[in-house]
Amino acid sequence: xxxxxxxxxxxxxxxxxxxxxxxxxxxxxxxxxxxxxxxxxxxxxxxxxxxxxxxxxxxxxxxxxxxxxxxxxxxxxxxxxxxxxxxxxxxxxxxxxxxxxxxxxxxxxxxxxxxxxxxxxxxxxxxxxxxxxxxxxxxxxxxxxxxxxxxxxxxxxxxxxxxxxxxxxxxxxxxxxxxxxxxxxx
Length: 186
Known about the structure:
By secondary structure, the chain is mainly beta.
């Protein structure tokens, strides 16, 4: 068993029989009281945010999680079929594990999938993706001084807000965590 000193942000714990990923982890030592760890964790299945105090040195159960970089091949209903690039094994990953960033995934893209005993529990796309704009309203000359945005449709159908100077047919970089425009790609 591990202790609270072994835990950090991103660690997956088995808490009350459920898998939870640590979002915040702080060591606190108030005045005359004993030190403790304040933990904020997200339940992997339900997405609920939990908060708990752990005594310093308390035993916790850290789940054995294996991370793999996999290539996204195609969509099969609510599942995304991904291939392990080392042994070419194909795994069906539930699309809900990707959350809102699912709309930025393209075929052939490398994604990070976390497994606990051969079952996918977490998945995330690359932080930044490059996509081509298939449709957007034309921008006006000289409209670059203000921070005004307009909707643009990407090659896979996702719609994001881009600055007025961005035009149809250009390739742009998108942050998948926030779904926002970053820059134009030359």
